[in-house]
Amino acid sequence: MEIPISGFMYHSDDSDPMHSHHLYITSWDGRPVPAHVHEFRGVTSFDVGHNHRYAGTTEPAPSGVPHTHRYFTFTSVDEGHRHEIRGVTGPAIPLPNGGHYHEFSGVTTVDGSTPHRHSYSGRTSL
């Protein structure tokens, strides 16, 4: 028995030395499988005399089921350097009127003429 599916694939950008991709299925047996993304933005902690701004869009995830989103972006360039931000959001937090958001937090990569990192946290868009 064959079930027709469609979707899209993109490079995962994992640190794994093997080349890898992620597949997101957008239709299963002719029926759409809805997916969605969230925007995220914020300001890092104040360390070594400065902070950084960041903004991005999460990777797609399926709608209507328990899920998380991976995210990745770079901070603004401040004091002559930038940091990388990456991670996985927490689970979906439902809102009373429908929709949901996710919380996220972590630490940046170590960069700068005085090597340091910043912490960050926030909530995604709805």
Q: Can you walk me through this structure?
A:
- By secondary structure, this protein is mostly beta strands.
- It folds into two domains: 1-33, no CATH class; 34-123, no CATH class.
- It has no helices and 13 strands.
- The strands form six sheets. The protein has a three-stranded antiparallel β-sheet, with no helix packed on it. Strands 4-7 form a two-stranded antiparallel ribbon.
- β2 and β3 form a beta hairpin.
- It starts with a strand and ends with a strand.
Topology:
Layout: E1 5-11, E2 21-28, E3 31-32, E4 35-36, E5 39-43, E6 53-57, E7 61-62, E8 70-74, E9 84-88, E10 93-94, E11 100-101, E12 103-107, E13 119-123
Antiparallel strand pairs: 1-2, 2-3, 4-7, 5-6, 8-9, 10-11, 12-13
User: Rounded to an integer, what's the Rg over CA atoms?
Assistant: 17 Å
> Structural class of the secondary structure composition?
mainly beta
Order of helices and strands: EEEEEEEEEEEEE
Helix content: under 10%
| Morphology call | elongated
Helical stretch tally: 0
For the biggest β-sheet, the strand order reads: 1-2-3
C-alpha termini separation: 39 Å
Please outline the major beta sheet: 3 strands, antiparallel
* Overall mean confidence score, pLDDT: 87
- Strand composition percent: 35-45%
